[in-house]
Design a protein that fits this description.
By secondary structure, this protein is mostly beta strands. It is built from four helices and 15 strands. Helix content is 14%, strand content 40%.
């Protein structure tokens, strides 16, 4: 083997040929993702596709739900799942790099499609996540999910788009065009973005199959766009 061939083999062994580099996507867009904590008083017994309930042991048995959201326009509007903030007494947002949570107001909701829009008093954001168009979504492409699983803010998981246009019924909601992904989605990821390697939001993480591994679902960008226009 020639010296040139040896150097080529060594280089290939030390590289990750064919694997994507998620670091630039995460570093660029993590500040546009927020953790959400919702307070309900008094506590209620409710079921969500993803997002746990617990109480803090106080006499009022205040109940708390957690989720994720992301900034999607220059005005600072934040998108999340309606089931995350449903019947909320208070909605608190945890921004990347801020020690204290920020109070949010609910601009509007679309119960049928499980989508809600929030707003804060903060100045216009420097960075936003743009929502993809339907033609930008391809089965088999790499995606990244950023969210707050189990309350662990700004956790990152990765996978591919397993399928799209999956119809699914959860409770009294019917989701017509869900994206299926094998990126890990857990409790607290609800409302978070599913991002392709071009930095576009191709879906909103919404549900996970508890009876299997690697089967999560996100509301497609097409439905997100329609719902945003309806709400705003």
């Amino acid at each position: 083997m020639s010296e040139r061939s040896k150097r080529t083999v060594k280089k290939r062994r030390g590289s990750t040929v064919g694997l994507p580099n998620f670091v630039p996507i995460v570093e660029r867009y993590k500040q546009a993702v927020v953790g959400i904590e919702v307070v309900h008083e008094p506590a209620q017994t409710r079921l969500f596709p993803i997002g746990p309930l617990w109480h803090d042991g106080s006499p009022s048995y205040r109940s708390v739900n957690i989720g994720t959201g992301f900034i999607f326009d220059p005005k600072g509007h934040i998108l999340t799942n309606e089931h995350v903030i449903h019947s909320a007494s208070q909605v608190l947002l945890r921004f990347y790099g801020r020690k204290r949570p920020v109070h949010a107001t609910i601009v509007g909701t679309d119960y049928v499609h499980d989508i809600a829009i929030l707003k804060t008093h903060l100045a216009a954001p420097k960075l936003i996540l743009r929502i993809a168009k339907p033609e930008d979504i391809c089965v088999g492409e790499w995606v990244v999910a950023i969210g707050s699983p189990l309350g662990l803010d700004h956790s990152v998981t990765a996978g591919i788009i397993s399928s799209k246009d999956r119809p699914l019924k959860i409770g009294d909601r019917e989701y017509p065009k869900l994206i299926q992904t094998d990126a890990a989605i857990n409790r607290g990821n609800s409302g978070g973005p599913l991002i392709n390697m071009r930095g576009q939001v191709i879906g909103m993480n919404t549900a996970v199959s508890q009876s299997s591994q690697g089967i999560g679902f996100a509301i497609s960008a097409e439905v997100l766009r329609e719902s945003i226009d309806k709400i705003l």
